[in-house]
Amino acid sequence: MTDARVRELLAAAGWEPCADGTMERVWPDGTRWRCVYGPTKAGRCEGDIAEGLIFETDEDVYIVDVLGFTDPEGMVLDRADRTAVVLDFLAAASAGRSFVRNVLKPLMVHAAVFRERSLRPVGLIVEGMPRRPAGPLGAAVAAADGSPDRWLDVAFSALDARLLHVALEAFDRALAAGAEPGLAELWRGWLLMEADPAKAAEALERAADGGMAGPAICLLGSIRPVDWERATREDPAFLAGWLTRGLRLAKSGHLDDALRVLDQAASLHPDAEVRYYRGYVRTLLGDDDAALDDLAEAIRLDPCITEEILSDPDLDGLRGHEGFQRLTRPRADENEQDPQATGVLQRFAAKVAAQAPDGWRRAELALDWSISDWGSGWGGSGSFILADGTKDHSALPFDVLHKGLPSTHGRAGVIRMAVHASGWFEASFGLDKDSGAAFVLDEEALPNDPGNDQEGPADATQAGDPDEAVRLLGTYLQRREAILGRPEELPPPAEDREEEFADLGHSLPADLRALYEVADGDGDAGLIDNGYEWFSASDLSFLHMGGDHYWMDGVLPDTRPWSTILDPGPPWSVRRSLDRAGWIPFADAGNNDYLAVDMDPGPGGRPGQVIRIGLRRSHPAYVADSVTSLLRRHVEALDRGDWVHEDGDLRIDLGEMSYERERENEPGEATLWGDRDAVNPSVNTQVLGVTGGGDIDLEAVRGTRLLQMKLAECRSADLSPLRDTPVEALTLLDMEAVDLSPLAGHPTLRAVTVRVHHAVDLEPLVTAPRLHTLDLGGAQALDLAALGRIDRLRYLSMSYEQWLELWRRDITLPGLAMAVLSGSPSPSTVAQWAQRLPKGERVQHYIGQY
User: Fold this and answer.
1) Domains, in order of start, for the chain
2) CA distance 104 to 84
3) What is the distance between the terminal CA atoms of the chain, rounded to a whole angstrom?
4) What is the helix (H) or strand (E) element at residue 679, kind and residue range?
5) Which of 72, 70, 47, 162 is nearest to 756 (CA)?
6) What pTM, to 2 d.p., does this model score?
7) pLDDT tens digits, residue range 789-805?
């Protein structure tokens, strides 16, 4: 369609031409919308749509794909120009207050609608509707064989991909192929409700006749009057039908009938929601005591419903009742709340409420207990949630926090707290800062050391030579004396050195032991590696006293098993750990940085090699294959003149063994934009992130030393090249298509994060021998039972609904060491979840009114 014809149709729909060539219309809510047809500008949709209808205000941009650029390959839709259809709809659309609500959302059943810079189309999200899980859209289309089941797969895959027009087409094809009308017509009706209410009503009637009376009539009730009794008579298992019927009766003044319906519902569904609704009806009947009994029972059945009840404006008439104030008391008693801590939180909540902006609903806070060299104390962050759902980041009164809050046992911790405008608060203690809630079930079982999974050295012989090491030490001292103009005397060998060495747990390499035969360290002279002081035998023993590694004091266990320790090289020479029993420091730089001999090397290393380790290092660093080689490098550098002597200080350029060269050869991290950059990591890249783009080609990473990879907001990526890559941590976020099958049996994969909109088949991960960490974060799984077959699973992060499904199906995870509740759960939800964890402790949960 030509631009002139588009402008003509827009003018007929009430749009006026502007000097810049766009068409413009002011909507009833006061927003000024402009429209233009043609190529999308740079940065919009990252090239997914070459051209389309562009609607924009000063703040928002929406692009309608009228030419079908984003229609799935292999599914032949009406490829004709849909511009006329969209514009006809635009002309007939109701001029309601919101252009997005009354025009753009109904348009989604005709064409994909994108937000600016979004790789995914805008789509409506619905929860609670009956459906079947589905995988990526492309795979579903490829498997479509004309049968109704396969077209239903395509339809639900398209819903997950937010291509609503494709979903509508697939439901139509499923019905044409003979699908039962209930489920397909239910979803057709839902899709058409805003675009064509009359057709939606027809579809929902057919769905009701096809066995979906409950949800179909609930949807139909928003279009026209319905027979609510039919919803519960024909579909008594659909709880929402009972609740909606009871609420409709109550709102229309038929209170006795509403109570009767909810009594029937309670006999079929011993559910907290039924008690909640019944309590509301009883408040309207004036029976406050009975209402409070129902509300208390609802909270007992499901503590997660507390927030909904205590903040419900329909219950405002009960707020002055003493019984309403007691609603939280049984929970508080059950939690065995400490009165002093409760008092602190009450005063804090009251101060928060006093400072709240107008129209606030609640405040969400994270109170951090921080420990540092300058002391410890409570601080935090948070925001007020306003009536329209927006956030207000006004200052919060953290200064009133003081002693009296529960102990964090000397470790950094966090309290998640909610303060509600309706006069109550709740808080949960001891949650992880980086996730909704995290509980360590078995700290010793956490697989936080990738070095344990690496093989031993291919060559187990020592590279050092004891005789040469002693000769080189003598030569080195002679060269230094010639430069400094003075001799440097070393302490004589310690007579009890063999006794001291017995405490080390590992034998010293032969070359270092030979050096201790001629000197007991360097007497704090700092002769090695430009200032490292060679330990005496007694100092060496002291560091290993009792099997403890003094240099790692204060390092807390790493409870983030997805974190990756990188490999600085040479490849796989040093095990990727922060500390190992076979690492024996023999020289100290004075800033918690040590030279150590490595008696437990990786597959590419040799026993006795020299490495740098220390408290502030994120990974060990390889220096030399032996102490002998390190000394040889010192002598060679002096002989070549690679040194500087100033103010009595001798600095030696150790070349490849130097600290400076180590920094230059640090493992690299790279972030690419998939729509602009080729995925071509450098030789040092071990952490790679790719954001945006279409089908990402990963062939360039095959066989590299890539250890950690993140793919986000791209269409898809064939993961097959990762089979030949030692990747350990893989993160897949907001991708349109994820297929994990290439990861089956992956030899090094340790941690996988999958957070996408469609359902994912987890079965390929069952055969990955080292996989121990899985973060689903709310992503659907085609079969959660696969989790029970991942024998090494130690860390699992899921949404509350996924945990409930796991427990409902009685899937056990006996080896689980850390459980995480993802998202932003309320403190009540956290407490409810934590109580059901195996081997878990009761979470410190506080609740009260202020």
Assistant:
1) 3-115 (no CATH), 236-327 (1.25.40.10), 340-433 (3.30.500.20), 461-664 (3.40.1580.10), 668-840 (3.80.10.10)
2) 15
3) 64
4) none
5) 162
6) 0.83
7) 998 999 999 999 899 99
